Amino acid sequence: MPVPLQDLVRHIDQLLDVARFRDYCPNGLQVEGRARVHRLVSGVTACQALLEAAVEQRADAILVHHGYFWRGEAEPVVGMKRRRLATLLEHDISLLAYHLPLDAHPELGNNARLGALLGMIDVQRLDPGDATAVGNIGHLSAPRKVVDVLGDIAQLTGRTPLHVGNPEQSVRRIAWCTGAAQSYIGQAVTAGADLYLTGEASEPTVHIAREEGIHFVAAGHHATERYGVQALGEHLAAEFGLEHRFIDIDNPV
Fold first, then answer.
1. In Å, how far are 4, 78, 86, 217 from 56, measured between CA atoms?
2. Domain CATH for 24
3. Are residues 147 and 91 in the same domain?
4. Tell me: the pLDDT tens digits for 56-87?
5. By mean pLDDT, which of 9-13, 33-37, 124-128, 176-180 is the weakest?
6. Can you give the three-state secondary structure of the chain, one letter per residue?
7. How confident is the model at residue 250 (pLDDT cuts 50, 70, 90)?
8. Taking a C-beta distance cutoff of 8 angstroms, is the pair 148, 72 a contact?
9. Which residues form the domain of 167?
């Protein structure tokens, strides 16, 4: 049976503890569509291609990690923003977006899912003093050569990651944060990580990795953030009996 939209939003907001986070965008219901939801499409980013795919699937709602209305963006509803909003409004489709709360959730979050898929154990927050911290640190079950870890990451993400360091060295203690979290490399060094994994790289990151003696891996912003929204969509399907489909709109960044 279709679930009332507001019940669905309320459940996710409570599950992800949205109120705890000071974010760069509004979390939750960003665009309101029809009052009841039966078909849910999820994806990483609410780009036009995802919206059009959701229309083809006759979705009632779209669930994403990267939504709209980011802090500092231009406010006029013109061009690309107008086309995206027009698609949602014309087809009466709701848009639900969860950014940092989805990164941080200890079971369904992007970091939790990536760590689980890579076989990490003894997982803790990278910053244990911050309850809203989004980075994690943990161990492999045994030391492994970096080249083998890179192979696992490539198989999981479907792309060859950028690596700074000697691939023949062995690592065990790994820190990670999905997306554009290259600036957390300093926290990874302080925490004693052998390797830091994130989505993107900046020019200074390479020098920090070399001079601090830590392996650095950038495996793709989109590629590392596929897993949380899928897990959340699957949870909602099981909880409410929804039809759910994850649609991956490829992004090389």
1. 22, 24, 16, 37
2. 3.40.1390.30
3. no
4. 999 999 999 999 999 999 999 999 999 999 99
5. 124-128
6. CCEEHHHHHHHHHHHCCHHHCCCCCCCEEEECCCCEECEEEEEEECCHHHHHHHHHCCCCEEEEEECCCCCCCCCCCCHHHHHHHHHHHHCCCEEEECCHHHHHCCCCCHHHHHHHHCCCEEEEECCCCCCCCCCEEEEEEEEEEHHHHHHHHHHHHCCCCEEECCCCCEEEEEEEECCCCHHHHHHHHHCCCCEEEECCCCHHHHHHHHHHCCEEEECCHHHHCCHHHHHHHHHHHHHHCCEEEECCCCCCC
7. very high
8. no
9. 105-224
pLDDT exceeds cutoff 80 at 131:
no
| Residue where the block lists tokens 């940092």 | 100
pTM greater than the 0.85 cutoff = yes
**Measured distance CA(149)–CA(1) in Å, rounded:** 44
Cβ burial of 192 (10 Å; 0-12, 13-18, 19+) is: exposed
What percent of the chain clears pLDDT 70, i.e. is strictly above it? Answer: 100
Helices 5-15 and 227-240: crossing angle, nearest 10°?
A: 130
Residue 37 in tokens: 């939801």
For residue 227, what are its two tokens? 């897993």
CB 162 within 8 A of CB 218: yes
Both tokens assigned to 19: 């109120």
pLDDT tens digits, 144-162: 999 999 999 999 999 999 9
Asked if residue 247 is part of any domain, the answer here is: no
Greatest alpha-carbon pair distance for the chain in Å reads 58
Say yes or no: 127 and 96 in one domain.
Answer: no
